[in-house]
Amino acid sequence: MENWPALRVADWTDTRDTLHMWTQIVGKLRLAAAPMVNHWWQVPLYVTARGLTTSAIPVGHRLFDAEFDFCDHVLLLRTTDGDHREVALEPKTVARFHAETTDALHALGIDLPMWTRPTEVVVAIPFEEDTEHRSYDPGAVHRFWGQLIQAHRVLTEFRSRFIGKVSPVHFFWGGFDLAVTRFSGRTAPTHPGGAPNCGDWVMVEGYSHEVSSCGFWPGGGEEGAFYAYSYPEPDGFATHPVTPEAAFYSAEAGQFLLPYEAVRTASDPDKALLGFLQSTYEAAANHADWDRAALEDDPARRARRR
Asked: What does the pLDDT read at residue 306?
């Protein structure tokens, strides 16, 4: 796989939308079984050397995990007693994928309750009834995973510079985006909610504290877009100068956006993206008066022997 692979959104929209529903099914397994963690951090998926995983989920006295393998194009379901099942990733309806995944779990002795209506999408067809989404282009999915790999690398580097409360680099299956979030340490005004097919109380928990968040979404541009926002958004945030030149503030989205292709084609993609992440964070932290001296540090200095 080439570094920073090109993938036009228009070339894989049907596959993307199908995969979005499949990740919701798998993500809801973790939601059903994992103990609640602040800001819903118990529910996302994580980038791996093969695709996306739930990580270990407790079920009774066992653990199990589910991993989308985007190399062999299978969903792997594994338990700590050594058993496993596979579900093929191939053109099929969401309803069929849901049934096959449920059957595989039952074969492993796992029966979890699931709210089968998808969240954070305008048209929310219950999984068991969804015969509309049925596309799967393995080449496109492999390239999307390549985008996630590069985004994960740079977001992880950016995360390392913050010693305050900071989320993992994780993939939220609701919005279908990879994100990392920094916290000022202060509580935030009650979030108004408003995400489609998602209770307002979900957003209230997610944004209970002041944040500067950034990530990558495979939409919002020719090849997807990196984004950055603050909640609550302080005065001056939207007009703060940010880099690189291709970055801009979208009043409609309420966030800064940087087209993926602008990073991919930069002479130094890592530097371009890190500049975007740092300058948009400063737009939030400076204008909201974060205690940056207490929250930031050089990871190389921390790693040196004392």
From this structure: 60
